[in-house]
């Protein structure tokens, strides 16, 4: 299910950051490859976006994928 959120933080040197979901739930991890696979450049912190939360392939919890800018 697609969710609304805001890019809270992104470390370009390390290639990851966190998205704050609009529903107030726990922040989600986002990796640079999620932006690359979505064809979206990493926006500035605070940017509104939509995403799908899915299980990390390595079993580390949820992460954002299929990102779109709002």
TrEMBL record:
PROSITE patterns: CSD_1 (PS00352), CSD_2 (PS51857). It holds the Pfam family CSD. One of its GO terms (biological process) is regulation of mRNA stability. This is Cold shock protein CapB. GO terms for cellular component: cytosol. It is found in: Cytoplasm. It comes from Pseudovibrio axinellae. The gene is capB. Its main location: cytoplasm. It comes from the Bacteria. CDD domains: CSP_CDS (cd04458). GO terms for molecular function: mRNA 3'-UTR binding. Residues 2-69 form the CSD domain. InterPro entries: Ca-reg_mRNA-binding_domain, Cold_shock_CspA, CSD, CSD_CS, CSP_DNA-bd, NA-bd_OB-fold. Coiled coil: none annotated. Keywords: Cytoplasm, Phosphoprotein.
């Amino acid at each position: 299910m697609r969710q609304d959120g805001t890019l809270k933080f992104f470390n370009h040197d390390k290639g990851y950051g966190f998205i704050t979901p609009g529903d107030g739930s726990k922040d989600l991890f986002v990796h640079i490859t999620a932006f690359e696979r979505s064809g979206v450049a990493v926006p500035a912190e605070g940017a509104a976006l939509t995403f799908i939360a899915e299980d990390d392939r390595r079993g580390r919890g949820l992460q954002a994928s299929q990102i779109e800018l709002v």
